[in-house]
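Tokens for chain A. Residues wanted.
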């Protein structure tokens, strides 16, 4: 088996999924037109000071830059032999995490649009304080799982990596 060919399939599949999920998430967000339901932290932070439209532009720009940078890293990063592969692991970890978040974003955009279309009177946006509390809980879960993943990788390298 040619491992370089197999690794390229995984590498470029991850690149493709990063780009595809980014496009679908942004497309479904703009297609819904339900901007008041947005719980993106950047939008929540800036909408009162610079307005909703500029906050959305800032959030989409940051998202595009982040996804573009991680996509570039996944496509071009080569770990150095005889050194830790921590950065290579983090690049793949962030790529997979971003894909998952964007799939969830697309899913919620579609479901919010369907629910609002079916019953526009009773479907209301989440209060900003409730959105911030929910995001804080998600962040805590993220930090715990990331710490456990990095700890596991560090222990793996200490056990199996022979330099």
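Reply:
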């Amino acid at each position: 088996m040619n491992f370089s060919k197999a690794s390229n399939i995984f590498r470029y599949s991850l690149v493709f999924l990063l780009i595809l999920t980014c496009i679908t998430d942004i497309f479904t967000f703009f297609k819904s037109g339900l901007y008041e339901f947005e719980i993106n932290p950047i939008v929540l932070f800036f909408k009162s000071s610079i307005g909703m439209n500029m906050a959305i532009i800032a959030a989409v720009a940051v998202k595009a830059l982040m996804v573009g940078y991680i996509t570039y890293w996944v496509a071009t990063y080569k770990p150095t032999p005889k050194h830790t592969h921590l950065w290579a692991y983090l690049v793949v970890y962030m790529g997979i995490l971003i894909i998952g978040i964007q799939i969830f974003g697309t899913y919620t955009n579609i479901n919010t649009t369907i629910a609002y279309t079916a019953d526009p009177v009773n479907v209301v946006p989440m209060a900003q304080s409730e959105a911030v509390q929910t995001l804080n809980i998600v962040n805590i879960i993220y930090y715990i799982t990331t710490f456990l993943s990095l700890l596991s990788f560090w222990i793996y390298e200490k056990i199996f990596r022979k330099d």
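The radius of gyration is 19 Å. The chain has one domain: 3-160.
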